[in-house]
Amino acid sequence: MTDTTSAQQAESHYFTREPPPKDLKTNTTLAREFITRHADQGHRVVLVTSGGTTVPLETQTVRYIDNFSAGTRGATSAEYFLENGYAVIFLHRQFSLLPYSRHYSHNTRSFLDFMKEENGKVVVDEQHQDQMLTVLRQYTRVKRENRLLILSYVTITEYLWNLREVAQLMRPLGPNAIFYLAAAVSDFFVPQDRMVEHKIQSNEEFHQGTDNADGDSTKPPAARTEGKSLIIDLEPVPKFLKQLVDGWAPEAMIVSFKLETDPSLLVTKSKYALNKYSHHLVIGNLLATRKWEVVFVSMLDGEKWIRVPTSRRTKSLSGMPSLVGLADHHTKKDVEAEESIATRKGIPQGEPSIEIESLIIPEIESLHTKLIEQARTGAETS
Ligand code: PMT
């Protein structure tokens, strides 16, 4: 069996077994209208996926497995795509960060701290006026131009249904479309037919039987209690990148992310993904340095690091500066030298920090332009 046939079979098995989300029709209606309008005007459209995906353990879900992603990469990237003229479909995990409002929600402070009362009216505090005015202007412009469509999901299955439907709707955009897959997608899940209906009971006196929600007791539920322990026996989620590249969006530019925690694996696994799926670009990032450096791995440009200079990095509580450069065997020494100069000099005061997405998106735009030109030349010569 070829890779393509087995990916098709895995797709058909998955979507037959896992029912579509209730709001799928609403989402596809909105997406169709948005895509048609931008396709008619010859605009470039990017689907940005963002945030984590949950894996519910019960049909009436009380417990679920989740991951760390807050949606910073996706929400920030969406803003820079909009700034670069793209129309953006923002498919995000419900309640994760949104473009523009992220400046006031991803904070240890409440958004109310940005406000004050003046003459019986709520106004923005003086010190936040300039930044909020800039953000508000960007947001209202994008809304006025109808260039941002926000869709949401919660679970891995909702994510995949939405991704597949929107990808198919985007086909008429041809090479003008980009898929920018920044969501942190679960690799394992509980299939619907192996899920219990009700909350899993921790008290042994109230343990449920071995029936799944559909009443079938031939296979044990994937999440169940045995004695005092909770046993979770997850199944693999098929890799949908293959189907996206070969079937759902064959002409679009596809950008996937590769997340690792071990620096020694990042470049190798990013290259492996590029070879396996034969798409356009893998952006490798390490959990601990993802806000300061990423590696682009592509057929067009090979391996290329994008790094925010030490003095311009955004703050990150979970970030580990000592790991910057460690996954890049060519330049670890350069990075160390830069680090030590910066440490000796102290980080310059008053220099605005740079978000790494402000460096990533222009690079992608120029790769996209090359791919559109290649597609045009190919179409003219054939
Ligand atoms: O939200 P932030 O806190 O800012 O974090 C951003 C991020 C680290 C989540 C983001 O930059 C990132 O790396 N996202 C991709 C994470 C991920 O799913 O990596 P992976 O190595 O598990 O998967 C690699 C690729 O395979 C992904 O593009 C994913 O879309 C795809 N995949 C994954 C699972 C699956 N079943 N099918 C897939 O096609």
TrEMBL record:
Keywords: Ligase. Residues 14-25 have a biased composition (Basic and acidic residues). InterPro entries: CoaB-like_sf, DNA/pantothenate-metab_flavo_C. The keyword Ligase applies. GO terms for biological process: coenzyme A biosynthetic process. It comes from the Eukaryota. GO terms for molecular function: ligase activity. Residues 1-25, 204-223 are annotated as: Disordered. The keyword Nucleotide-binding does not apply. Residues 1-11 have a biased composition (Polar residues). Residues 44-97 form the DNA/pantothenate metabolism flavoprotein C-terminal domain. Belongs to the PPC synthetase family. This is Phosphopantothenate-cysteine ligase.
